[in-house]
Fold each of these.
Amino acid sequence: MPRPPQKSPRSSGVVPAGDPLAGLDFASGANPVRRALDDPARGVWLYQGNCLEVLDALADRHPDGVFDMIFADPPYFLSNGGITCHAGKMVKVDKGEWDKSRGADLNHEFNTEWLRRCQRVLKADGTIWVSGTHHVIFSVGYAMQQLGFKILNDITWEKPNPPPNLSCRYFTHSTETILWAAKTEKSRHCFNYQVMRQIAGGKQMKSVWRMTAPKSDEKRLGKHPTQKPVGLVERCILASTNEGDLVLDPFLGGGTTAVAAMETRRRCVGIELEDGNIKLAARRAAHAATLFNQSTNPEEKCRDAHSPSPMATD
Ligand SMILES: C[S@@+](CC[C@H](N)C(=O)[O-])C[C@H]1O[C@@H](n2cnc3c(N)ncnc32)[C@H](O)[C@@H]1O
């Protein structure tokens, strides 16, 4: 059965139902921002531009916050000449210019600046999820503490089938961390306990989530070098928002959050710097729109890899 977006009890009437950036003139700035996708029917708006600039515009327009939840997968700062194994071959780690480290202090300054802006655009009870490896996640956690977020959980995403460590001088890297935090210590955050319990097979869900990296079906419209599995983002969305809520991804990449939001009937604003990535994101979101009215069961997709779900075969 089609599931039209429902108004969440937590979505206050003050929040506009349309694009929270509608009508803003970005074209004249030094770094033009352009709208790459406008889908009011599904509530999805994607922008190409620097998220710092777009977040400033959002904060000016919505001083009390506008987003129920943010999923951020920022640069990891790990493309610095190291090696990894891809498709059985030794290759240089090079995700792109955006992923090069500028040194611990500048990296931390960047993390603090985008997190400060995200905090401003969150609603009072809103939450943020930030994914990363050890290259970035300690800085993100420290910046969250400095800014007065309330850290709620550190989730470990365990990959059942990681690439081997070619140097044989380290353990095989097989996890990423996702920090979940509320806007402030006073926030009364949303946690859909029963939904998570159901996904966990009737038990309290633990903070270790076992899920495979995106499979080929999530890459058939093109792929992003650090693409997250849709099921991972869906689980974050299902845990912390209600249908019709508004989600932001300031580092949209290939559009995973937009797809996850559509599949769970949430509205979404995504921001991405690079042309090729935002085009991929728009393609994936447009494709997800064609499936919007078909029956889907996102709870099924975001089960753990060891649960008896047909979606989770390794
Ligand atoms: C780790 S990737 C996100 C991948 C995404 N989660 C996915 O599943 O496809 C980070 C993305 O942030 C983008 N980016 C880097 N700096 C940015 C900025 N200042 N504003 C907006 N996007 C930025 C990069 O181009 C890259 O695509």
Amino acid sequence: MTEDGHKNEAKRFFTHMLVRRATKTPNVTASAQLPTLRRRALMPLLEIKNLQLDFVTAEGRARAVDGVSLSLEAGETVCLVGESGCGKSVTAQSIARLVPTPPADYVGGEILLNGRDVLKMSPKELQSIRGGVVSYIFQEPGASLNPVFRVGAQIKEALKLHQPHKATDAEVIRLLKLVGIPAPQARLKNYPYEMSGGMLQRVMIAMALASEPKLLVADEPTTALDVTIQAQIMDLLRDLKQRLGMAILLITHNLGIVGDIADRVAVMYAGQIVELAPARDLLKRPRHPYTQALMASVPRLSGDAKRLNAIPGNVPRIGQFPPGCRFAPRCARAIESCKATAPALLEVESRRWVRCPLWNDARASSAAVAEAERR
Ligand SMILES: Nc1ncnc2c1ncn2[C@@H]1O[C@H](COP(=O)(O)OP(=O)(O)OP(=O)(O)O)[C@@H](O)[C@H]1O
Ligand code: SF4
Ligand SMILES: [Mg+2]
């Protein structure tokens, strides 16, 4: 199957799979003396620890996710940004172990969802968290909806799987209203082809919300939409986050849209996180040269940009990462040692992690700050 085929299969699978609320399997460990509920209240909703994932293809074995660690608190919004091919989707799909194995091979790490390791779950346990704890929305709503069924029936189907006692027209209408679809009573009889891309994405969000997930993973949910509709969908996500209190992992290659919604931002490059920081700090003072370059490539709202500063070159393909710093061939600040030594991700300030020993280069930082302030 092609890579696109796998992605589509994952989307379809997610839309139609059997899901239930997570089973409350007691996670009894010797160290865990606290009552389960209190322990859960103290732990992050999601904790990815040193995740390593390879793809094994005819060309050989290549690492696509290399030591990614990331956590999300309940109700928190984290944006995962980076150019195409950096490993954002593979990391996000791993949270519910949606990446098909093979060709994927989980080589190491842990993905703790409510304290339980997704990588060690049985197929039955996985079914219970998919949709029950974590739901996904993807870039192409059309690919996830069945063209021959009315949207109301499809949302009701999702309710039957997740919350059977709520599988009623009234609940479908409530969900359609929640995601801002006008005249929901009439709309539930529409087929997908009768709706615009923006409306379809709202339907997908309604289906994802049917299970009342604790974590919504939105993988480039606005990329296929025009700019006005993009803004509306982002407003909707922000509103839902406040009203429902769920955590959101929002994947985008556009740093320009994260300021309004993200609590924290993780920047990925070539399978690794290169910067992780509270959104406000990162946008005001990006520390990693890649983050700085990404920000310089975002069009300014003021519209006075002479030209966009595109990052030269491309993200290296998996299996072809250069030795030393993976960004070195494209980094304007690279020095000789960058090509030899792979930098570690270090906490350089409180809650601020950067994978570059030159993160505090005053000249480059002040140029980036000046650029950020001009926006
Ligand atoms: N099924 C697969 N088989 C082999 N390689 C794959 C497969 N799926 C993804 N990859 C590779 O893994 C790397 C990370 O892919 P991923 O889809 O996570 O990137 P991304 O950051 O989400 O990019 P985009 O912004 O284009 O969606 C890419 O190099 C991609 O080619
Ligand atoms: S380690 Fe060197 S090449 Fe890598 S981002 Fe920092 S300055 Fe650039
Ligand atoms: Mg992707």
